[in-house]
């Protein structure tokens, strides 16, 4: 259906793709895999007309084509759904679906009724249960993803490129998405599916193509592959090493949280987001928090760190002493550190150098008599870069040009530089590749071994099970239970995480 | 590549050099054959003319670096010019004195408290080893009595200095110290409203622009919209110092501008505060989560902007021998234009005072060249507008990109490590290749 042969592309003399070939058949789900920097995004940008300069040949239904713009690609039936969603939160579902292609009355006025009716029909056809008149901003990420798909298909796309669509979805939402993808494929739509999650690909894809360092490594039917072979193809080495064993919750209780609550202001008064969350974290312990998206996982960390917006309640004790944390500034002073979920929006200064990023929270401590000490800043950054194995051309490299995994390490480094006692990690491996994930895991374990109290929020259950000594499960802001290492399993977590009609809170830690 | 980069990085100075060259070549010549543009008197005039705009633009740079904007500076300068002129010429508790004396005392108090806290912070930690964590710092609360005493003492000293002058009339030092404090407080009010009310800087400073103009007119009184200052007759004679030349070679206003740019530039470069300004403009949320007191930093940038407007006002009064409520009309836009020509991004986090300095000079030289050619003043405005657009175009597209457009026909710059991450790498790289001549965050 769509195929590319010998596609090469380089940026300022640095090759990003070298003679890559790729073909797509009607009705198949074709997974495209590779570590960050392997060239997946570049290839997809070429296929979707975002990147019009390349060498090589693209054929669409056998005819040679060259997409000069996104519009060209759309006209040929290629649609791309980016990892960051492109929806207007202020508009409703129907308006978003037909944005730029509104049905008109007399060629002038937007025919709102028709837009809504068409959108409803389209959503119904896809089996998506959404009211076309709800505002996008009120939908959950998973639902927004479905709207993106509907939008792409309303433009009669025959080829759908999806870039990590599940990175923000709960397991249930993933299942729903997979069902819709399968349904589309059986209707003849060809789907290119980019993902880091191997299990997902094994479940969903018909064929897999793996890229590494801009080169094509393999294209194979999924039936002929195993997880290990895919990983090996991606990282260029055999399976991952094991994560060092935990030495368990050894130390005394360091962080103690009682009756944590959070009320968020809305137009109609206060909405309860967290209620009665209580737990203890020991020195050297990795304390996991699991739950669905929107269950209040992130809010627990933000509330402890003093960065959540709204009315905060509850007691936080550090090393037995009651503390009041009104802002991230207080938290930092008390030795807390938080690595945020969204590192680009909240964690990093992308245009600043690695050095400036790492030194930022410590600037005041590094300064001598009110003047910055560039030497100390550089020494600190150098030290952290080496300690964490951050791969960069030097501490002067711009943070935004690092790979995802290394960006994440910079965020962790800037907090470790403040010598924290408590480390709050929110989705520390979101959107980073397998090799870097492994390194982050090892790092987290090492830090726990050094006596830090670590709280880890993750939506990837295998990650939680691998790292956490105990796992707290939240659902709809309530604490559902704490699972010890032996009691924890994906099933046990999911059972607790599922929304319930009951409104009591389960036992504390 | 390396040469390109160097060219890119220094393009501001090239721009300045270019405009200088144009001025030199196109300059009319006197009957004796000497170049008017290059004459010492002419260049001094340029410096004198740009000083007021320059001071305002200096303060504006800090604000814009935090991704804010300050539209009120013109009006703040107007208030301050009225205050300054009244203090100089009218004895007793005029509206100006009522405003200025408490302002001065309050600012003295705040500055003293800040200085004492700073001293405690540093002496307590001076001996600590390099990598010691923040916990070693004693909380400033422990020294409340000391700081309070210092603050009150400073306020008392301020009153002791000013009260006698209210009875007679203010001297040069008096207005030079007191007037900027009025501006500073108005600026701080801007900042406090923006931070506490979580409002857009544009709206808040727009409101302040209108309000301050009103206050300036009320202060000046209805009948005398212009307050003349005749040094030697109705005001102290040594106020003329502010419009003279130092050692007969350098205009005093220029000295103020250069000093302000140097000091603020050093603050932005060499202090944590400066880095916070860039960090807030670059990514406010990340800055907040890094434990930076974002609100305080913002308030300080607006306060400094107001203070520099106050200093500019004193120079204005000295220069034009009057204070008037419409002194600063349109000045905020000139200042913003100079900042932007200097390569500071209105989105914040990128640029710096070196750029603003060049921007102000480019603007000033341009006016001068147009004047030397006797170009119709309305036509001058049109040309200036076009040149702003032209310069900013060159600023925003970096040189490498422009050249690559010519040479290779590639339409946009591209990331160095294209697929290294999923974000928008294009921007970061173009910035790296010389989006600006100086600091970037």
Keywords summarizing the entry:
heterodimer, A: 509 residues, alpha/beta, Rossmann fold, 6-stranded mixed β-sheet, 18 helices, 22 strands, 27% strand, globular, B: 441 residues, mainly alpha, ABC transporter involved in vitamin B12 uptake, BtuC
CATH architecture of the domain at 40-90 and 169-377 in chain B: Orthogonal Bundle
Mean pLDDT of chain B: 83
What spatial order of strands do you see in the largest sheet of chain B?
Answer: 1-4
What is the level 1 CATH name of the domain at 252-335 and 421-433 and 444-509 in chain A?
A: Alpha Beta
Say how many strands of chain B there are: 4
Instruction: Kindly provide the radius of gyration of chain A, computed on alpha-carbon positions and rounded to a whole number of angstroms.
Output: 24 Å
Point out poorly predicted stretches of chain A: 501-509
Distance between the termini of chain A: 56 Å
CATH C-level category of the domain at 40-90 and 169-377 in chain B:
Mainly Alpha
Please bin the fraction of helical residues of chain A.
25-40%
CATH superfamily of the domain at 252-335 and 421-433 and 444-509 in chain A: P-loop containing nucleotide triphosphate hydrolases
Biggest sheet record of chain B: 2 strands, antiparallel
Task: Quote the distance from N terminus to C terminus of chain B.
Answer: 23 Å
Strand portion of chain B, in percent? under 5%
Structural class by sheet pairing and helices of chain B:
mainly alpha
Largest sheet of chain A: 6 strands, mixed
Q: Note the quaternary state here.
A: heterodimer
Order of helical and strand elements of chain B: HHHHHHHHEEEHHHHEHHHHH
pLDDT < 50 runs, ≥5 residues of chain B: 127-138, 407-438
